[in-house]
Write a structure and sequence with these properties.
The protein has 527 residues and is of the alpha/beta class. 26% of the residues lie in helices and 24% in strands. Helix 4 runs parallel beside helix 5 and helix 9 (292-306) runs parallel beside helix 12 (342-356).
Length: 527
């Protein structure tokens, strides 16, 4: 069945004014294998179904989606929701008898022992799109389809995610041509674009009528523009597997920007999976610019800032919150032995994310609003050696949610406070006698019926210690440091009724005393 853009425009109008939180918004556990106990955590909304193309098409034209059906049934019985992804780390073995292949693995994602298939070859493209059409037929008949939040659009070119072919491998003479097969054209950007378009067209025309499609947010710009109206009306959505505490490069920043522009605005929804665990593990181990509790927490904050509605958690990170233990590669942590408080910090981070995820475009019903203070113009990732490539433009300041900081003279700092608290990857320092002002989303302020404002600050000692006043809603709170050296939170109750702005346009003001004040977050929460 083919659906056309005009059909969707009639059926999928997504209003950005007064809209509700997207259905099934929340935290999703991934890579948990058979450890379904992690799905029983109260703040976990759903899980993940992942199969390999190799497993669903054991013979050419013979498809077996029963494993997907079984998982759908199991998750639905648990009251959980899920995505489905058919990955391409393992391609059908029979393809190596009909498609040219390279004897080496051209990506860490390739797990086929025979090597790497020529994905841009017409036979490979035909085989993949035919499998997707068969999968659409399976979904159309599935009684458990309502457990789906959507299908991840995998290209399954080299491995699951990759396209580039090294220059040496672009020599067609180095490719093995099976008997009876034809060599195929040289690799080129045009061939990549043609393959991408064929796959996206198949997902849109055959699978989208049965489920929301999550499109990888690094898709070819021309393809994204072709289907712009479907993103504008929410029929197509965005996803990526690149969430980190900040974008690691200028190129990746553009992918986060697709979330920010289309998802935070409420036009469509986004699904975000981390690049690696909080320790940096994902087959190899990446550098981390801050401690695991801080990385884990700030990664969720940027996803909330970007308007993600479905926020995925690595099972290994979730296990820290649930069991207090982490053991991957050379990274080990056990709360019972190490006693650093990581478990409570991971738990607090996930509960904070669960409270807010999906409410970014629903200010009238959001449980609160917040700003997490930071500043960084050059990404701290050491695995991108060029400083020029790490120059950021969009994600250099605060992460915020229905509240923003007005221009001021505060200064951003990095890695401050105890490493075993989640807050200190970034913060801002308010100079003695200075003030910091915050403005709420107008619709949130107008719908206010009472609650509190919380300020998280570093309780410093000596000359670095600074008292401050919090002023909001006609109420005032004076906070005096006691020198614990840790991040603390002060609370001020706010009266019911719409929150009004002062002459500067701010709803809240923090005024520093005779010393500097180091601030992490201001959060306004409803009763």
């Amino acid at each position: 069945m083919k659906w056309h853009i005009t059909t969707w425009l009639c059926l999928a109008v997504l209003a950005t004014a007064g809209q509700t939180r997207p259905a099934n918004s929340g935290l999703y556990a991934i890579w948990y294998r058979d450890n379904y106990e992690l799905l029983n955590v109260p703040y976990i909304v759903g899980g993940q179904i992942m199969v390999q193309w190799h497993d669903v098409e054991p013979e050419a034209g013979r498809y077996d989606f029963s494993s997907i059906g079984q998982e759908l049934k199991k998750l639905r019985a648990l009251g959980k929701r899920t995505t489905i992804q058919i990955n391409g780390n393992l391609k059908p073995a029979w393809l190596f008898a009909s498609v040219p292949y390279y004897l080496e693995k051209l990506s860490v994602q390739v797990r086929d022992k025979a090597g790497t298939l020529m994905y841009w070859h017409p036979r490979h493209r035909e085989a993949y799109t035919n499998m997707l059409k068969a999968f659409a037929g399976f979904l159309a008949q599935s009684p458990e389809r309502d457990a789906l939040i959507g299908i991840r659009l995998n290209f399954n070119a080299i491995g699951t995610e990759h396209f580039p072919v090294p220059k040496d491998a672009q020599n067609l003479a180095k490719w093995i041509v099976p008997p009876g097969a034809q060599l195929g054209p040289p690799w080129s950007p045009d061939e990549v674009a043609a393959y991408e378009k064929a796959v996206v067209d198949t997902f849109v025309n055959h699978l989208a009528p049965h489920a929301k499609i999550f499109v990888r947010n690094n898709v070819n710009a021309k393809i994204a523009e072709q289907y712009r109206s479907l993103f504008e009306t929410g029929k197509l959505a965005w996803f990526h597997t690149s969430s980190e505490a900040e974008p690691r490069s200028r190129g990746l920043e553009r992918q986060y920007r697709r979330f920010f522009d289309d998802c935070r605005s409420g036009k469509t929804v986004g699904y975000a999976e981390p690049w690696a665990s909080a320790w940096g593990d994902h087959g190899k181990t990446d550098h981390r610019s801050c401690s695991p509790p801080q990385w884990n927490y700030w990664r969720t904050l940027i996803d909330l800032h970007c308007g993600v509605s479905f926020l995925a958690l690595y099972a290994n990170d979730l296990a820290v919150a649930v069991t207090g233990r982490y053991r991957v590669n050379q990274n080990h942590y056990d709360e019972a032995k190490d006693r650093r408080g990581y478990q409570q910090e991971f738990e607090a981070a996930f509960r904070f994310a669960a409270k807010y995820v999906g409410y970014h475009a629903s200010p009238e019903t959001s449980p609160g609003a917040w700003v997490a203070f930071r500043e960084n113009h050059v990404a701290l990732a050491t695995n991108v050696p060029s400083v020029q490539d790490r120059q950021l433009s969009s994600f250099t300041g605060d992460y915020n949610f229905l509240m923003e900081r007005l221009p001021d003279q505060t200064v951003g700092v990095h890695n401050i406070g105890p490493e075993n608290q989640r807050q200190g990857a970034w913060a801002r320092v308010l100079a003695p006698g200075g003030n910091l002002q915050l403005r709420l989303d107008a619709r949130f302020a107008a719908s206010w019926k009472g609650g509190k404002v919380c300020v998280t600050y570093l309780d410093q000692t000596g000359d670095a210690a600074g008292s401050f006043q919090l002023i909001a809603g006609g109420a005032r709170l004076t906070v005096t440091p006691n020198g614990s050296g840790r991040w603390q939170t002060a609370e001020l109750a706010l009266p019911a009724g719409p929150l009004a702005t002062g002459s500067s346009g701010a709803h809240l003001t923090i005024v520093a005393g005779p010393g500097p004040v180091c601030l992490h977050m201001v959060e306004v929460s409803r009763n």
